[in-house]
Structure formats: C-alpha cells, structure tokens
Amino acid sequence: MAAVAGVVGFATADRGIERRSAVVSGVPVEVVRPDGAAGRLPGVVVAHGLSASMQLMRGFADTLARRGYVVELVDLAGGGANTERLPDLGDGPAADARLDRDLDVAVRHLRAVPGVDGIGLLGHSMGAAAVVRYAAAHPDVTATVAISQGTMPFGASASSPRDLLAIAGGFEFAGYRAGAVGAVRAAYPQGRAGVTYGDPRAGTARRAVIVGGAEHVGVLFQPRTHREAAAWFDRAFGRPGDARGVGIRPFQRAGSAMLLYLAAVLSFAAIASALLGRRSDGEDGGQERLSPGVALGVPVAAVLAGVAAVAVIPREVLPVGMTGPLAGFFGVIGVLCAVFPLVRQRKLGRPETRTVAAAVVLAVLTVVSFAVPAQLGWAHAVPVGPRVWALVPVAVCAMAFFAGIELLCRGYSARAAVLIHAWTAAGALAGLGLAAVLGLVSWFVLLVAPLIAGLLVWQGVQAAALRAVRAPVWVAALVGGVLLAWPIAVTMPIG
C-alpha cells in the first residue's frame, strides 16, 4: 500500500508544471514553469545548501511554478550533478567566488528564458548566503528569500539587498534563529520576528520568520515556509496574493520517497527469505557467543578509538568532503568490534554460489530502494565525477563497520542481537557528535546526523531480517555497507 501511494505521489508531482534540464557553462540547471503558460512571468533562481542538490529544493519550484513563476533550480559547485569542486567545503573567499560564479550563470540563463520578467532569489543555508551576497551586489534582483542562513553578510542598509525575507526553523541552532532576526535589525534596530518592516514597492522591506517545530532540513518542507516565501515574492513583484495557499506542496515529493522507503523496509524480510531460504541451526557452526560485558563494552572502546582516528585522518584524503574521516570512523569501529570474535576463531564460513547471488541481488535492491526515491524526491543519488571511485573505499569501511556489529551479535537471541546492534549504532552516532563538539570533524556532521541515524535504523531492520534466516555475517555487511556508503559518497560536497 505504501509503495502504491508513493508511486502515485511521484506520478502526480508534475501535474500542472513542466520541467526542462540543461547544463550551462558546466552548471546543471532545471527550469520549471506553469504548464502552457504564456505572457510575461517573474523568475526565481533557487539555490541549495552544502551537501545538497536541486532535488532537495524542488518543493519550492513546485510551489512557485503553480503560482505563476518561472523557477530555475541549480546544482552549485560540489553538489548534485555538478562535478566541479567546492573550495574549502564552502568556507572562505575561494568558495564564495565559485558559488557567485555558478549563481551568476543560473541568473543569466533564467533572464534569457523567453517570457521571464524580473528575477528573485531563494536559497537555503550555504545557498542562502550566496543569494544574499549576490542580491546585495546586484540591485536589479527584485527580492530575496534566505532560509537558515545565519549571520547576514551585509551592513545596516534597508535597500541592499532589496526586499529580504529571512526564515529559520524553531529547532535550529540558536545562531540561525538569531541570524534571521538580525537580518531585520541590521536595517530596523527594533525589529522582531513575524513583522514586516519597510516598503516592498521601494525595495526596503525586511521580515524574519521563525517556523516552529522545524530543524535545518525540515524547515524546507514546512507549509508555512512555502506560504511565506510565495507571499513575499508576490508582494515584491506586485502580484495578487492567494490567502488559500494554492499550489503549496512542500512535501509531496519527499513524502512519496518516504513511503517508498517504508515499503522497501517492510518488504525486505520476505525478499531475503525467498532468496536465501532459512539455514539450519548447524549451518552457522554453533558459534559461541561473547559475554554480554564484552559484547557491550567493545563497542564503547571502538567508538572512542574511532573518535581519535578522525582527528588524524585528513579531510582531503578523499575528493568528496568529509567522506574520508567518516569512512575511517566507521571502519575503525568495525575492525575493533571484529577483533574479539575473530581472535576466538569464529569462522565466517565459505560462501555458497546461491548465497553470493542472493547477496548481490539484495545489495542491488537496497541501492535501488534508496537511490530511486532519493533522485525523484529529495537528493541527487547518481554518482558523478570523483564520487564514483570515492564510493569504493567508503563502502569497504561501512562494510567493516556492519561486519563488526554482526560478529558481536553472533550466538545471541534475536532480541539480544537487536539490542547489541542498536547499542553499537547509537554509540557511533554519539561518537560523531563528540568528534564534532571537540572540533575533530566539521560541525556539518551534526546537520547530517539525522540522515546517518535513519540509515542506521534502516540497516538495523535489514540486519535483523537477515539474522532471522541465519544469513552469513558478510551478507549483512555487504547489504548494510552499500546502504550507508551510497548516500555519504553521493551527497557530500566535492571538495
């Protein structure tokens, strides 16, 4: 049922709009406009944040196109299908210059689209900083919406950039919320959230909005975020507003992806059982289990070792930002978790042809189950450029991580194995948080932690299903490894 609902959601997502993709001066763009629209329409360029792509921002294209705008989505350097590196992972003058160049390519391309009359900008996080910077330098930009930007990079002027709306999520870090209000107070010192200051017709309007119950990514899918952005552009371009919120569909694509993910998780056990069958109790060698103290204590020591390891792994060891330290972190934990079981001569067994074939099918199915909904709904999921070969070492380390967990679980009951698995996965997440707090890895890890947590839960369900049919350790490692490695390698920025 979930799969049917997800497919229907994607099938109807483009109703009423048309999309055309192109690559302009090396920058991938997608133009979205009302189906069959004629006459002059305002245009809006939409820019994504760090470790994201145009797919994450498609909800804004859907909303604005249905309200009479021509929208251009863009993959900035390092993100999505753009194979150019993003200097210093988006931090510093070189990165700003590269982002400004890509944004300028997108703006010029949209201006040249027949029927486009005027340009607005919308950006999220790193993309928000880019659109604010660009609009401040180009007074012909009619209006700007900056979502989760943080501190605004401009002085106390009500006219530069023109008509600025700053949005932040109520659950975001305090700096993001303060930055949104600060955008108003830079021009209107007594400004507060939820109040519009200045005159949109004169280009001096400022407004800050704090969207309750939303964090850094979730704010992009809140109906209020879309209503505020659409109303802001309507006022700036002198268009009639729509209090009914017609065209507001922030979650259709991402929601459809979530439904397909749910269907994949729920159906995995049945598929694994059909492919692998259920082995007899003797086929796993009657492995002796580790003591509970060892099974729970080893992951703690392994996580601490992983935290220490990321301190010495260069961030640029792989061409995709942060993948080197992340891969090393999971790899170290996996190897150390596997030491005790392997020292006690726990044999992994010789793989049978049927098992190998089934494992390959399950691995491919897992990749497809993640990548297809992601590509359609919220993230670029096709490896391009250096992402292709970076995927290999990341996958090897992820496989080591899950192999170590499975070796700790061997010999335990199904319930106890789930607890050991959850304990180790939760410890890894806590370790990443500790590494970020200590400055050993980029703070950006905290923003992608929800994605990693979701992948670990997904893999935990699959691992439990594989244990139920007594699949060899390496099968769970292979399937879980590609599930964790794929999004890390294809979504992190090329640096």
From TrEMBL:
Pfam families xrefs: Hydrolase_4
Classification via PANTHER family: DIENELACTONE HYDROLASE DOMAIN-CONTAINING PROTEIN-RELATED
Hydrolase listed as a keyword: yes
Span of domain Serine aminopeptidase S33: 44-147
Similarity field: Belongs to the AB hydrolase superfamily.
The organism's place on the tree of life at top rank: Bacteria
Name by which UniProt lists this protein: Dienelactone hydrolase
TM spans (from-to): 258-278, 290-313, 325-343, 355-376, 388-409, 416-437, 443-461, 473-494
UniProt entry tagged with the keyword DNA repair: no
Keywords: Hydrolase, Membrane, Transmembrane, Transmembrane helix
A GO molecular-function descriptor: hydrolase activity
